[in-house]
């Protein structure tokens, strides 16, 4: 292997390609999408504007936004065949599994599967952005034995999602906090799921296959699945009075505490202050301040004992809980948002592609003869 480059485990610190989509800056704890500070996007823009920005490189003007949202709203419905497939899912299936299968089915229905021209890929992206929330909500209601609620073209993505899940649109404070979470979750350079979508795309496979792979990668608790584990942990702690001891005990037992740590950020995640602000708003809006009190003690203890800071999943988990979502819906909600980053990366990879195929250093058995079956 001497003439080869030996990358560190987990490719830590390795730059594998260029991207013009987002810039993660751990030295200043900041993040930009296409050059715009993510905090500014949260305060100024809707999730739909950010979705347009992600795949087009520029913020839309009014006419461009209307054309984009009109198309997205037109594409929200899923076919009767897909509804029938969802109707066969085990009622207790995890929504990330039902979503992965739902996206796969969308790929089977799309006759343009092998057409990956920029225009077709843009259209497929808008279809995924529009239909992923419908699949999540339909699977949720199927799991509960409830009738499905059709998408409503008069609503934003966030409003329509709440309506399809619960049959009503919550207060504007809740919608704003949800929209902010979608903006913050939208994109984060070469994270594991995005890298997975780029690896799949690099073989010239199709967008649906890449997104299904991205969903599989995001599901893991070391990545997007952490937002669910955070809420399980906070509920296990149960009371603020237990929080410090719970954390000290976890650290003493060398547990990986979900919602803390990050491969790139070492002194805090750029997105946490904004999300935390909106999670606190949810706590005062719902009166469920207890969850934030527990979270704050867990955070203070982790930071003072280990110097490890929370990542975005830490404030996002309790925010979704206080909005009324069941815990296993949290990572699918992440997908509703990250579809924007994934598809931007899929299109970027496609536009300047070389198959991603690293080497491995073999450490298995030395070369040997096959023993015939009767002699084994
Ligand atoms: C949206 C997102 O995907 S954000 C990430 C969500 N994931 C989580 O919250 C899961 C919990 N966190 C982790 O498992 C890790 O911090 C990861 C996966 C995010 C990053 O992994 P890595 O970059 O490989 O971190 P690494 O293992 O180098 O951590 C450095 C040290 O901090 C410790 N550490 C890191 N995160 C944690 C944690 N959450 N709890 C306890 N200790 C931790 C490690 O054990 C390690 O200690 P050591 O040097 O004594 O062995
Ligand atoms: O960047 C990462 O490794 C994980 C992350 O925060 C994200 O995907 O949002």
TrEMBL record:
Signal sequence annotation: none
MF (Gene Ontology): 2-methylcitrate synthase activity; citrate synthase activity
Domain of life: Bacteria
Gene Ontology CC annotation, any one: cytosol
Biological pathway: Carbohydrate metabolism; tricarboxylic acid cycle; isocitrate from oxaloacetate: step 1/2
Active site: 262, 313
Pfam families per UniProt: Citrate_synt
InterPro entries: 2-MeCitrate/Citrate_synth_II, Citrate_synth-like_lrg_a-sub, Citrate_synth-like_sm_a-sub, Citrate_synthase, Citrate_synthase_AS, Citrate_synthase_bac-typ, Citrate_synthase_sf
Record's keyword terms, sorted: Acyltransferase, Transferase, Tricarboxylic acid cycle
Any GO BP annotation: carbohydrate metabolic process
Catalytic activity as recorded in UniProt: propanoyl-CoA + oxaloacetate + H2O = (2S,3S)-2-methylcitrate + CoA + H(+); oxaloacetate + acetyl-CoA + H2O = citrate + CoA + H(+)
Family, similarity comment: Belongs to the citrate synthase family.
Record's protein name: Citrate synthase
Organism: Cryomorpha ignava
